[in-house]
User: Which sequence fits this backbone?
């Protein structure tokens, strides 16, 4: 991040390339439909906004991804307002039948709507996992590591999740994790009366859970709560 912000064009290009799945997910959620690079103009707007966020980001603002998400959403809103041709478009929700007319839709229309929604959810989930994978790899963790390091017993998972929550809720611990991939081990041992060895044994899982809690990962959070 510092190199990209400091004028290293190669570092900036790599950063944009790595986070393109994240940009696509944010833009698709804001627009309300799946966006395709090279086809939808909103993608270009979102990527330019992400590039702008790199220059404007200040570590004191908190998470870079949260900050960049706000910038992307604002620039898309500005784009919609400037694009006067959109004023003549009919909002899709206005075309949806009311409940007592839903039965009038043909089975083919209903199947097409279900298929589109399933595709959109699948693509959002794929982009979310890809973004999560990239963040973990920057912290030296691979997705395959989670399988090996995940606690086998429910009580151990619950305890690890509580430790992750404590890290996220502590500003210093949160910053240390996001910026350096470090856990506040001493603070956790004192607060939860657990050994350093236990924290180190579950370190990968605690970090992985904390990243899910910090970022906007609804699919992963749903999986976490159902499993944990």
Assistant:
């Amino acid at each position: 991040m510092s190199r990209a912000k400091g004028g290293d064009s190669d570092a900036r290009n790599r950063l944009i390339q790595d986070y393109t799945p994240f940009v696509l997910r944010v833009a698709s959620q804001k627009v309300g439909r799946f966006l395709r690079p090279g086809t939808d103009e909103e993608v270009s707007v979102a990527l330019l906004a992400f590039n702008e966020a790199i220059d404007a980001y200040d570590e004191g603002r908190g998470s870079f991804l949260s900050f960049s998400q706000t910038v992307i959403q604002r620039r898309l809103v500005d784009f919609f307002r400037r694009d006067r041709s959109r004023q003549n478009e009919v909002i899709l929700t206005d075309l949806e039948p009311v409940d007592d007319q839903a039965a009038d839709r043909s089975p083919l229309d209903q199947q097409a709507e279900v298929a589109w929604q399933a595709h959109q959810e699948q693509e959002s989930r794929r982009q979310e996992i890809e973004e999560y994978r990239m963040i973990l790899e920057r912290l030296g963790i691979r997705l395959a590591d989670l399988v090996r390091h995940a606690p086998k017993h429910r009580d151990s998972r619950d305890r690890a999740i509580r430790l992750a929550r404590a890290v996220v809720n502590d500003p210093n611990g949160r910053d240390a994790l996001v910026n350096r991939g470090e856990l506040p081990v001493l603070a956790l041992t004192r607060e939860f009366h657990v050994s350093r060895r236990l924290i180190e044994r579950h370190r990968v899982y605690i970090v992985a859970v904390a990243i899910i809690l910090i970022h906007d990962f609804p699919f992963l959070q749903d999986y976490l709560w159902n499993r944990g």
